[in-house]
Amino acid sequence: xxxxxxxxxxxxxxxxxxxxxxxxxxxxxxxxxxxxxxxxxxxxxxxxxxxxxxxxxxxxxxxxxxxxxxxxxxxxxxxxxxxxxxxxxxxxxxxxxxxxxxxxxxxxxxxxxxxxxxxxxxxxxxxxxxxxxxxxxxxxxxxxxxxxxxxxxxxxxxxxxxxxxxxxxxxxxxxxxxxxxxxxxxxxxxxxxxxxxxxxxxxxxxxxxxxxxxxxxxxxxxxxxxxxxxxxxxxxxxxxxxxxxxxxxxxxxxxxxxxxxxxxxxxxxxxxxxxxxxxxxxxxxxxxxxxxxxxxxxx
Length: 299
Prior knowledge:
This protein has helices at residues 35-50, 68-72, 82-88, 118-128, 148-157, 170-181, 201-214, 224-228, 238-253, 274-279, 286-289; strands spanning 2-5, 9-13, 24-29, 54-59, 76-80, 98-102, 110-116, 134-140, 161-167, 188-192, 217-220, 232-236, 261-265, 268-273, 294-296. By secondary structure, it is an alpha/beta fold.
């Protein structure tokens, strides 16, 4: 594997020149670790899913990308991350763009959101905290990261009431959370969704302290919250996300994909905090363990 530095990006080639058939370029910005590792993992999955010659183009966002179009050439392109997509906006591509590792749904493109499908999240909740009857979530007003209608249907299908609060900013969200947690107890849950910008360290501490005292569930899309005491987290399986993006790119390149659209994420990992589950009286059965990829042991 060879790394060639260019003025605006680096190009890491995974196949020899002259290989027949469609070629794939996975484009993503140069970011700090551990986020860069996430992009590399998705790109590796995309190479496997695409099944043909694949390159990784790493954008240096501090330098111009005037030659990006010529470097991409006739490649099928998968763009990762919002900044990667933005850099490709003015570029004339030979094939329709495939987008991945973004939270927002982008109309008119092929791709996959990194937000797990609502039915996947509610299935995990129902399996790991089966006594849950109400779930509270605070979202940014007019945000499209979560499909609220689909979420309502998914929770209702399993007999769980989803209570949605909208907040304009961090201060409003904090007020809502403080009011809500005073009403919660066993059988209730708080969901911290993908793309959440409200729950920082201070508010998370308040939530988890209230959860421990009042015995309600906190679950999240951020695995670091589980280390702090949330019951579990549902988050992307980055490699499998890449595999699906590569498969989608192959279909588009071969003309087999007719209608553009963003697929919700299906492949996820689940991490659970055993100490929290013990405190909440949740005994992990063999059936429950089938839904868990990593258990943080009780200390």
